[in-house]
Fold this sequence. Notes:
This protein is α/β, with parallel strands linked by helices. The protein has 3 domains: 3-184, Rossmann fold (3-Layer(aba) Sandwich); 193-378, 3-Layer(aba) Sandwich (Rossmann fold); 397-492, GMP Synthetase, Chain A, domain 3. The strands form 3 sheets. The protein has a 9-stranded mixed β-sheet with strand order 2-1-3-4-9-8-7-5-6, sandwiched between helices. The chain has a 5-stranded parallel β-sheet with strand order 12-11-10-13-14, sandwiched between helices. Strands 15, 16, 17 and 18 form a 4-stranded mixed β-sheet that branches. β13 (311-315), α11 and β14 form a beta-alpha-beta unit. It has 15 helices and 18 strands. The longest helix has 20 residues, at 398-417.
Amino acid sequence: MERVVVVNFGGQYAHLIARRLRESGVYAEIVAPGDAPSVAASPDVKAVVLSGGPASVYAPGAPDVPDEIFRLGKPVLGICYGFQLIARKFGGRVERGAGEYGRTRVRIVERDPIFDGWSDEEYVWMSHGDFVARLPEGFTALAVSESGYVAAARAGVTYGVQFHPEVAHTAKGRLLLENFARRIAGVKSVWRPEDQIQRVVSEIRQRARDGEVLVAVSGGVDSTVTAVLLKMAVGSRVRAVFVDHGLFREGEPERVIAALKSLGIEVHYVDARERFLKRLEGVADCEEKRRIVGETFAEIFVELLSRFPGVRHIAQGTLYPDVIESGAVRGADRIKSHHNVGGLPRWFSLGLIEPLREFYKDEVRRIARALGLPDEIVNRHPFPGPGLAVRVIGPLTRRKLEIARRATKIVEEELERAGLLRRVWQAFAAVGEDRWVGVKGDRRVDGYIVTVRVVESEDAMTADWSRVPYEVLEKIAARITSEIPEVTMVTYAVTSKPPSTIEPC
């Protein structure tokens, strides 16, 4: 199988590069920098992509790749940090600049096959502080940004781009990657996520050769697909468990259990609401909340072993964005610990099965459709494992938790009435410690501020705030302030990811 190798320097978007290539039918896999030359030397590897990363190329101990990678004669594309590394290796100069973040206009100054289908000016997604101040000898600038930085360059079959073609907000980024793989490297189309189902099932069967498998289900597409794949792999040896931590949206536990039963998955319900809330009450630090949730889940799963003595493994619907944001990949910067990755305690000893660990949300949805799952599960909005705990900013109190729960319900109801709920990636409300003086019933009220967050995305690695019509926002704000007595102000979040994250905590 012809393939492209993506060298992971720890950037948030490293696996997203492989995913974009896969969307074009090009098989791509991730390798560590030190393994790159030996893997890339294989005849079936047609090209190499060097990912971005949080480091600076001139910093001590900065990630590097052996020079042999460039002596193979195969096309190489450096992205962001990867471009800067190429420039430095070949004698160019990289410096710290003012930085470019978010949507940025670039101008093509030299036409090249990699830009086939691009106009002379296009908008791309930037996220860098360092920049290539001087190109190495033999390199030609192909594009410049509106700030005057080199945005793309080439020498032979070695390319570099300062922007991120892999993120959705670079409008023609997928086309650039496809041009690189097909026109420059000559790769054939062979890959679809739906085609991976039998491979994943076989891997699960191999991992879980003995004993039962405990699978944690939450009703989301990730855990549901995981449960279905497990059932396909090991049949009656699956034990599906729904742990109610008291941090779900209004009415969610009941809806989840009914949906799973309709798929033929028998669910064991565990009421752990008081246990979680007592541990979380008064906790303000985001990472500590995630740690508590992860550790409490693990404790409960271990306790369930007495109920299911045949269990030898636990399965969960971890996706790669969870892994990369938790800093679980070597060289990556931890953005936030996901309860099912960084939140799992070291003493947790059950064999862990994560069949979706290398997939992204939209790929999982394609797999879900191929498995015949209903639309209500396939298109369910992502919901964090720690639930509403990460939508309560500052010390968690039961009242603030209820405010976030009720306000989120209002947001969802109004978007549903406007026909917008299924068109956006995520929609919710968060509450913090900030207060705002208001007037209710002719009386002064010192109330909470609720922030409404509605975003559009494809993969959660990047996101943009949704331009919800003013009249819908007006209805949301009016309902929240009138139906929740303690709230006196509603705000709307208009910051993209990056620099923000989707969830507040």
